[in-house]
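Quick question about two entries, pasted in order.
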Amino acid sequence: MLSNIEIQNIIPHRYPFLLIDKIEEVEPGKRAVAIKNVSINEPFFQGHFPGNPIMPGVLIVEAMAQTACVAGLMLEENKGKLGVFTGIESMKFRRQVVPGDVLRLEAEFLVFKMGMGKVKVTATVDGQVAAQGEIKFAMIDQDKK
């Protein structure tokens, strides 16, 4: 298990864009399971949507990507790099995520070689699938833009 502080020692994301609170399970370069406690205090709820707060789907995808990023950046050859999206495939949204939900984020690497990868990701709330699909990424040096 990794705490929020330990996560920040691995990935560069910070508030308000660090979207995972803890890592419950991790196998570097293979898989990870994270938790996001969804709070009404999240800044995006101010506008999405007043009176009917729903976590934006793109932020659920980002939280799943951050989960995968932790597992990928724990490998020695990737330390200090940055994980960036190269694609999103077959993403489906099945359930709204609202304040008070505990989002369980799972990432399983399907392919990961030469700094490129494809990860199967799933986000659930109380055992119900909120979102699932596949994301593609590249590990790049942080000074490259």
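Here is the second entry:
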Amino acid sequence: MPCYSIEGVIPVIDPSAYVHPTAVLIGDVIVGPDCYIGPCASLRGDFGRIVLHRGANVQDTCVVHGFPSADTVIEENGHVGHGAVLHSCVVRRDALVGMNAVVMDEAEIGQQSIVAASAFIRAGMKIPPRSLVAGVPAKVIRDLSAEEIQWKLEGTQTYHNLTQRCLAGMQEVVPLTAIEQDRPRVQAPAFEPLIATKRQ
């Protein structure tokens, strides 16, 4: 994977973490145990430190960066969806930042909170625990239900599983030129989008 030191500061990746070969890590980046870093993610620790605690995931095309002397932290089981941008902020334990959301400087996403897709979290905003946040600029919409919090946890657990699957079996290959007979499916654990669970 593209991994670069700057001024002698080298990224740290726990051996139990999975970092996709197309992700880029620069400088003061610390990836903890059981973390997942997706394709084309950019974690630039060339100004401030970036820290991922156990079981956090940063999905494809996310950008994580920060100001000098400011840490950007994703706590245990923090879940950062496709294309999100984090800058000098803190994502507390078991919180989710939705796809294409932006979390600005000195903002804090409270424990077990969910930031909706494409939300804009302004600089300095403090999100209370167990809250649903949405909008541009983002506002706290309501408290989360126990079912929604459980759904988020199960989603993060699918990324824990993906970390193990990638470490065990992902490899670069030459694509096939035709669909084979009885084509298999990947063996991902069962998990549905939140909208599907509400129909049940």
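Reply: Residues 146-169 form the longest helix (24 residues). The mean pLDDT is 96. Hope that helps.
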